[in-house]
Write a structure and sequence with these properties.
Length: about 500
């Protein structure tokens, strides 16, 4: 009896453990009754985006007409075939777009690999990379373009280099003066200091005091190793004028005793904005306008000054042919404020920002891209009435000659025993700041020219000078003298040969 009871008890425990094992396997493989799942349908079975099931939580994605559709719902045990088994499409690895799980709300986080979100995350790094490359490329292109514009490399243009290069490659900076450096390194054929040295010197200049202002900016007297230099500081809006003037000054064979001596050009950052510097020789007498306003001159000084301006203009207009030849250049803004007086009372022509060059090969004119125009008071008739052929170079030279005639008239008024008060050309015909219409009316319509005082006729030199200036401001440009002819005529007047004739 006792044995029988033990056997029964062992069978009971064996069956119990067997049922527990089956229940554990069933819990592992099959769903749990009352499982909560995320759903995206409407109806009594889906309340507050939640449903309950005795099967599985289900999620899937399908593609219809190119649009992906997602489904989230409960999969009940009654829909599973075969019953009690896991659906074949829920088995791992069978279907990438179907997901089954058996924990509460486990299907909410399902995002199939083929959905647009996953694709987007795969593409985003590439998009970001391409955007970064594009931005870097655009910045590099802009910087390269700006660098070429401001510091063109090549003959006759500016170089931007590391300062250490200047120290090692140009030891002449030791104790040499500016003039020594120019003569030693350029043999007088070029203009300005060696291109690799310019920036080094510009950084060593101390500005002393301001000596002039204009529409481009300011002019300062600077000091470099005990020498005075003139520093023309352009405003950032006049970048094109600064670059153009520096470019013209560095024209091969331009250096001349009657052309303002160019030293260097540089762009300097003062901490707030970029300053554009043009460094030239300094002349303590200032401009011819300042000189004539404050002082009078005698007949010999008149001839010397006029001849020096004519000589400088003739050199500008001259086309020097050769391997390192100089193109012909027209000034386009010749006036007393753009002419400087040296200590020996000869003159130099400066301010070449509006100058144009003649391209002999193509017979074309290299015109600056700046919006500046010449001074209205000194404009020739053909410029005022816009009849000048701007495609040809000779009309520009003839326009310079007209302006030169007005400059000589200003000088002649301050000459003699009883000089006249300084006045600008057409002071008695137009307002102090004349408009184009005022000048057009006086010069083109009425064809008036500055008056010649009677006292000039009794002075042989002033009389001869007046004949020259009248031949400079003819209404017909072709009838005007050339700069070379003016130079020779003034040289004859100075020697007395012209007066004797």
């Amino acid at each position: 009896m006792f044995l029988s009871n033990n056997v029964n008890m062992n069978n009971y425990h064996g069956r119990k453990w067997f049922l527990l094992l089956i229940f554990a396997v069933y819990r592992k493989l099959d769903p749990v009754d009352g499982l909560k799942c995320y759903c995206d349908t409407t109806g009594p079975s889906c309340q507050n985006e939640t449903c309950e099931t005795d099967g599985f939580c289900f999620a899937s994605t399908t593609l219809k007409a190119g649009v992906k559709k997602f489904e989230y719902r409960c999969w009940h045990q009654e829909s599973i075939f075969p019953p009690g088994d896991r659906p074949i499409w829920c088995r791992e690895g069978e279907h990438a777009g179907i997901f089954c799980c058996a924990t509460d709300l486990c299907n909410r986080a399902f995002v199939p690999e083929s959905t647009p979100t996953a694709a987007a995350w795969q593409v985003v790094p590439w998009i970001i990379g391409l955007m970064v490359l594009g931005v870097c490329g655009a910045i590099s292109f802009w910087w390269a373009k700006r660098s070429r514009k401001l510091t063109k490399r090549g003959s006759g243009h500016l170089f931007v280099v590391d300062d250490s290069l200047c120290e090692t490659r140009h030891p002449i900076l030791g104790t040499a003066t500016i003039r020594d450096m120019i003569e030693l390194t350029t043999s007088g054929s070029g203009s300005g200091l060696p291109l690799l040295v310019q920036r080094s010197i510009a950084r060593q200049i101390q500005l002393a005091d301001i000596i002039g202002k204009g529409r481009f900016g300011e002019v300062w007297r600077g000091r470099w190793r005990g020498e005075n230099v003139a520093v023309k500081i352009f405003s950032s809006r006049e970048e094109c004028s600064w670059f153009r003037e520096a470019e013209i000054y560095q024209t091969v064979m331009l250096r001349h005793e009657n052309i303002l001596g160019f030293i260097a050009a540089d762009n300097k950052d003062n901490g707030t904005w970029t300053q554009l510097w043009l460094i030239t020789d300094y002349h303590e007498n200032g401009s011819l306008f300042d000189f004539l306003t404050a002082r009078t001159i005698d007949s010999n000084t008149l001839v010397k000054m006029a001849l020096s301006v004519a000589t400088g203009l003739s050199h500008l207009h001259m086309d020097i042919v050769g391997t390192k030849g100089k193109p012909a250049i027209a000034h386009r803004d010749l006036k007393t404020k753009n002419i400087l007086v040296k200590t020996n009372l000869t003159c130099v022509i400066g301010d070449l920002g509006l100058a144009v060059r003649h391209n002999v090969g193509s017979d074309s004119v290299d015109v600056p891209s700046t919006n500046r125009v010449g001074t209205k008071r000194y404009m020739a008739p053909e410029v005022l009435d816009e009849t000048m052929d701007t495609r040809q170079f000779d009309p520009y030279k003839r326009s310079d000659v007209y302006s030169f005639g007005l400059v000589v008239w200003e000088m002649a008024r301050r000459c003699g025993a009883m000089p006249d008060e300084y006045q600008p050309p057409y002071y008695d015909c137009v307002p102090p700041d004349p408009a184009l219409e005022d000048m057009r009316r006086v010069v083109c319509v009425e064809r008036r020219r500055p008056s010649v005082p009677n006292r000039w006729h009794s002075d042989p030199i002033l009389s001869s000078i007046s004949k020259v200036m009248k031949e400079c401001w003819y209404q017909n440009p072709a009838a005007r003298l050339t700069a070379l002819r003016i130079k020779k005529t003034l040289a004859n007047i100075g020697s007395g040969d012209y007066i004797k004739m």
